[in-house]
Write a structure and sequence with these properties.
Phage tail protein beta-alpha-beta fold; globular; Maltoporin, Chain A; 6 helices
């Protein structure tokens, strides 16, 4: 029996001349027959196919804006079915061997890759590959996942990574004005160092915090996976990972230029140009660039940047595509660590330190880094519906880093008004190469549907660095600094080379039985870390030291298992268990290499995707424990053993919704109960057991709303406002007793305004004026610093204005 699905809506599918227009779809993963019914109604098409053809088949769904042709290709992906437009408003679907082995012009299905508007143009993303490495609706992912889309970043006027994730639960980022290196973040209470939690385009971003930084203008979106993710991604912290997705070539022409100016003499120009390079769309291109000249709230600390990212996509047919992604980035920032004493910041024990104080040597201390990278993303869909994808990237970094630090944060020098400042020269060169290969497919075993994934990935990192300390310190007044002094340097005390080789194999099965969803993932990793210290090249050789070599090899198995039930009304409760591991450099007193730290998480939650408007709501409760944490050797003071453990129990809420065509809302709440559960006493007899890890607030909440006027006198105006609250967190006040002090919490207000000048005068069509501001009340706030008895000043009030033109 043939089934005919149709609707009376007009359509441009298959029409001659004008290309078909993109249509917004929101079709969750479900039975193929019911999904095609929704599609036919939305697209205004008549679908012809035998009713038994779709029986027992499922579709991963569709979310975003697609042409009707691309949309049906996505819905039929992996089913082995073919389709053809017999008229401009009629589509026939058949098996791959229909009509005696000739589908009569039908397009073989597998995976036509769609490039265009998609989810990234919405403040609410409903599907992502983060967390599963397959294109999966977020509601079906058995783990908390947050997505910051391009539209959300544009609404809020985001200019850096800290601002991008400011409204995302589970993340605590240290505001570090004037500072250097990658963002310093905590994920669900666990600090992520050396880019262990940072990914770019599905591959780890790097292996050292000082090799790179993030330019948010070059991103399509940011995916945040909460909790252990080692089952698919390999080594990492128990708190999760953050994957930044770079801008890709688009099939629809895109042209944008903008000029930004604002606080701290910031002046920035940027452009983003994309579209087809050939008439048939076989070749696509994108050119994204930015130039910034800016100061910061910290004296002598610039925030200058050059960013250029060309990209090209070659798609000879609907089953194969190759995207080449290249980037060059040069960044100049200050080199001072900016850890300020608590006495004149958190505590009211005298005059307050100025938020612009620079604890460095002007003209000497700086962090300048140049990054060049090139990579690719290759995808191919076989006629059987199986899909192969390979991602690769090579990065070369040149780091000119002269660091300054305060050696006496108790202010004991000269009436308690001075800090001794030392300088370390630490230039570094690094190279890394990473690759991920994955094969996925969908099939049924009886009533159970499977989407399986097999992968093999690896990475190589090679870095050389020298470190030379100044032979003298200089005292800087914290109230009236005088930088008229010099530093002297001897020979390097460290000349090192670091090599890391990692390889992992993984597999995953996403199973469905009716409304039940079961996900099982597993991975085996092998890691080799080589550390060389060429003392014979340095001053240490004069004291009888020789070259040192330390090699550590580790292997680990990690996994995830999760079960969920998807109700027809959009609710999905789930429960999951996942594990992680992270290699640790160094050795104990006996010279034995440290084992990797390990983590495990129990999580239960509920997700809700409403049917009446575009939105996603998530609530989760979890417990994460980390073992093999370094702690004091109780016998050999000055050395470490792996007797420590940390436990975090928490609760998260997140809501993102386009409540109406005019109103967008984001809300989040995080509760964390973090505790050091095992720790050996130090040489003073003090243990951290029973205390909270430094820098982890117990409570955090955020709310953002944005309203766009689409008619009337205010047509073209968008208004947004937000509030962020971060509760107090503990910091170590002094090392002898291990006493902790509470660093106060804070509340910050943000706002944004955007006006479409074309609504005022049609001759200005495509031009927009935007103003955004953070910490509008200029609230003083602090986060725990890098050392005991120290804090870092938060970001002061910042206001930017942007004039953009898009055509």
């Amino acid at each position: 029996m043939a089934l005919v699905l149709g609707a009376a809506l007009p359509t441009t599918a298959g029409a001659q001349g004008t290309p078909p227009a993109a249509i917004a779809f929101n079709i969750p993963a479900q039975d193929l027959g019911s999904a095609l019914t929704v599609f036919a109604d939305r697209a205004g098409l008549r679908l012809l196919f035998p009713s038994d053809l779709v029986a027992g088949r499922r579709t991963p769904g569709l979310s975003g804006a697609y042409t009707p042709d691309a949309a049906i290709a996505r819905l039929l992906q992996g089913t082995g079915l073919v389709y053809r437009f017999t008229r401009s408003d009629t589509v026939t679907i058949s098996g791959p061997n229909a009509a005696g082995g000739d589908a009569g012009g039908a397009i073989p299905l597998g995976g036509i890759e769609v490039t265009g508007i998609a989810d990234d143009q919405q403040i609410v993303a409903l599907a992502t590959s983060a967390g599963t490495k397959t294109n999966t609706p977020i509601i079906d992912i058995p783990q908390s996942v947050s997505v910051i889309t391009r539209q959300e970043m544009d609404q809020r006027g985001v200019q850096d990574f800290n601002a991008a994730v400011a409204y995302t639960p589970g993340i605590r980022v240290v505001d570090y004005p004037g500072g250097q290196g990658m963002p310093d973040i905590y994920l669900r209470g666990f600090r992520a160092n050396d880019q262990a939690a940072f990914y770019r385009d599905g591959l780890r971003g790097g292996f050292n915090a000082y090799d790179a930084d993030i330019e948010t203008y070059g991103l399509e979106r940011i995916d945040v996976v909460k909790g252990p993710a080692s089952a698919l991604y390999g080594s990492g912290v128990p708190g999760g990972i953050i994957d930044t997705i770079t801008k890709r070539p688009t099939a629809t022409p895109l042209r944008e230029i903008e000029i930004l100016a604002g606080s701290f003499d910031r002046l920035q120009g940027a452009f983003d140009i994309s579209g087809p390079a050939t008439a048939d769309g076989t070749w696509l291109y994108r050119l994204t660039g930015l130039f910034r000249d800016a100061d910061t709230q910290i004296n002598f600390s610039p925030d200058n940047r050059i960013y250029f990212a060309p990209a090209v996509t070659y798609q000879p047919n609907g089953q194969t595509s190759l995207t080449i992604l290249a980037a060059y980035q040069k960044t100049e920032k200050g080199g001072s660590e900016q850890s300020l004493p608590m006495a004149n910041t958190v505590f009211d024990l005298g005059p307050k330190i100025s938020p612009s104080l620079y604890l460095g040597a002007p003209g000497l201390t700086n962090w300048n880094v140049e990054n060049s990278s090139i990579g690719y993303e290759f995808k191919h869909e076989f006629d059987t519906g199986w899909r192969f994808q390979q991602n690769a990237r090579y990065v070369h970094s040149e780091v000119d880093f002269n660091s300054a630090w305060g050696s006496d944060l108790t202010l004991a020098v000269v009436d308690g008004q001075y800090i001794n400042i030392g300088v370390q020269l630490r230039p570094k060169t690094s190279d890394s190469f990473l690759m991920d290969n994955r094969l996925s497919g969908m099939f049924n075993t009886g009533p159970i549907g499977h989407e399986v994934l097999f992968g093999l990935d690896g990475g190589y990192y090679n870095a050389t660095e020298t470190r030379t300390n100044s032979t003298n310190y200089n005292a800087i007044s914290i109230f009236n600094p005088n930088y008229d002094f010099g530093y002297q340097f001897g020979l390097p005390w460290s000349d090192t080379q670091s090599k890391l080789l990692q390889m992992g194999v993984y597999a995953q099965d996403q199973m469905t039985l009716g409304n039940w969803l079961l996900t099982v993932s597993g991975r085996q990793d092998w890691v080799r870390n080589e550390e060389y210290n060429y003392n014979s090249r340095t001053l240490l050789a004069d004291y009888g030291f020789t070259d040192e070599e330390a090699v550590a090899t580790n292997a680990a198995f990690t996994g995830r298992v999760a079960l969920g039930y998807k109700f027809d009304n959009g609710l999905m409760p789930y429960a999951s268990y996942s594990t992680s591991f992270l290699p640790i450099a160094g050795t104990d007193f006996e010279g034995n290499a440290f084992k990797p730290t390990t983590g495990e998480q129990y999580e239960a939650g509920i997700k809700y995707e409403p049917t009446s408007f575009r939105g996603l709501f998530t609530a989760s409760v979890f417990q994460i424990t980390e073992q093999n944490v370094l702690t004091n050797d109780p016998v050999n003071f000055g050395y470490s053993v792996q007797d420590g453990a940390v436990r975090v129990r928490g609760f998260e809420l997140e809501a993102k919704a386009n409540l109406t065509a005019n109103l967008d809302v984001i809300a989040s709440y995080t509760y964390l109960n973090a505790e050091v559960t095992q720790d050996n006493p130090n040489e003073y007899g003090t243990s951290k057991a029973g205390t909270a890890p430094s820098g982890v607030p117990e409570n955090a909440a955020a709310l953002w709303a944005y309203y766009t006027f689409r008619d009337g006198a205010l047509n073209g105006l968008g208004l947004g406002g937000g509030v962020r609250y971060v509760g107090s967190s503990d910091a170590v006040m002094e090392t002898v007793s291990g006493a902790q002090v509470s660093v106060p919490g804070y509340t910050l207000l943000d706002a944004a305004l955007k006006y479409d000048l074309g609504a005022f005068d049609r001759r200005l069509k495509g031009a927009t004026l935007a103003i955004s501001g953070t910490n509008l009340l200029d609230t003083d706030y602090y986060t725990p610093g890098f050392y005991w008895n120290s804090v870092i000043y938060g970001t002061r009030r910042t206001v930017y204005g942007t004039l953009a033109y898009r055509w």
